[in-house]
Amino acid sequence: MAAEAKRLKVDDGLGRLQDFLQWCDKVGLVLSKKVCVTTEGTAADYGMVAKEDIEEGEVLFTIPRSALLDQETTNVSALLKKEKSSLESSSGWVPLLLALLYESTSSQSHWKPYLSLWPDFKALDHPMFWSKEERDKLLKGTGIPEAVAKDLSNIQREYRDIVLPFMTRHPELWNPHTHTLELYTQLVAFIMAYSFQEPQEEEEDDDDEEQENKASSPPMMVPMADMLNHISSHNANLEFNPDSLKMVSLRAIRKGEEVFNTYGQMANWQLLHMYGFTEPYPDNSNDTADIPISCLYQAAKQDIQSDAEQQLFDERLEVLCQLMQENGAVVFGKRGCLTESELHAALKLLCMSQDEFSEFKDNEGWEEDDEDDEKISQAFSNEGLPDLKASWKRLIHEAARLTLRSYGDGEVESDRLLMEDEAARKGLSSRQWRALQVRFGQKMILHRLLELTAS
């Protein structure tokens, strides 16, 4: 089943689409004759459909880098480059956002035919545009309300401290009365949903930590590529080359089928948070549920019966907080734990005896572990979980139970009945339906974890 539409259908776009396709010809964007851009038979507004059978490895379209819209190609690129140091931010998005503020409101923009196909920003329905009350009610326990609160705080600070002073210095190009915080926030959501980032090349000498610390590539708008809709079982992929970007088929695509790209291995909560849509349950093979580290702490604390045990727990907790973020989480997918190394370390530490912990401190950590990554991964897979040590299973089981309670109702069955009741589903708003998809997917993963770790 295809993904829920991320954009609303429109009725007046045929002329604008033709203008865009003519613009594509002018800028050297080459579209295969085997595909067409249309609103008919697609999962969302504009999409791409095969006009003929397509074989694996065929190039569906090629986009020259000069046709990309980013901080290097915008008409205000020289200014953005000149004042680069004043535009630095935690997101790294400010230069592109300023470019989009300018280009989207300029009648002379080189990208006007492309920009004319952008959806009405008022139609964007990311959770950041829901009321706080609605987010807290529908998405409690999913992690989305907390992520949105952080986003909105960062957006407001970025606009106030960086963007507004910059625009004030350049009134000939930007106007705070036009380029408002509201528009800025909408463009942030638009970049979240429609932009692309060039993958970082991994160097052989880089270890995992060095790779993580490398600055990510700035986002870019990629005409044509951002029209393709997403499903986890996608049939095309965007390839980055020195002079161009190419959309290439990953497998055979039959005539009449839609061409789908992927936004990455995204759980439904991530899709809703960043893109404003979800994949219907159970189609999303990348769905996940987080168990906060705090729930593991709480589960481990339940066995404390004396002051000595409390002291040992506090000491172990202090060490664990140094190893892991206090507000972090272990992540479970449909086939087991996806952060097995972190979970393995936490369980070993939390379940240590006094003697084991003393030895751990004397050695300033663990001695060389004879368990390799493959064995650990297998141990925390769905197949391996039932065979874990009883103390480890109990902690995971109790932490999963505590996490389920964080949803408020916590009951899997109530959401299951709603999912299966077609008449009741029809009475749900689109927001209620998407929130249900997120909640139910997460709860089912946690419910399965309870079954696998039951005594």
Could you tell me the radius of gyration in angstroms? 25 Å
Structural class: alpha+beta
Per DSSP, the total helix count is 18
Shape: globular
- Give the rounded overall mean pLDDT: 90
Sheet with the most strands, sense and barrel status: 4 strands, antiparallel
Return residue spans where pLDDT drops below 50 for at least 5 consecutive residues: 1-11
Proportion of strand residues: 5-15%
Strand order of the largest sheet: 1-4-7-6
Instruction: Classify the helix fraction into a percent range.
Output: 40-55%
**Total number of beta strands:** 11
Please report the distance between the alpha carbons of the first and last residues.
Answer: 37 Å
Order of helices and strands: HEEEEHHHHHHHEEEEHEHHEEHHHHHHH
Write a short abstract of this structure.
This protein has 455 residues and is of the alpha+beta class.
Describe the structure.
With about 450 residues, this protein is an alpha+beta fold. Helices cover about 45% and strands about 10% of the residues. The chain has 18 helices and eleven strands. The longest helix is centred in the middle third of the chain and has 26 residues, at about 145-170. The radius of gyration is 25 Å and the shape is globular.
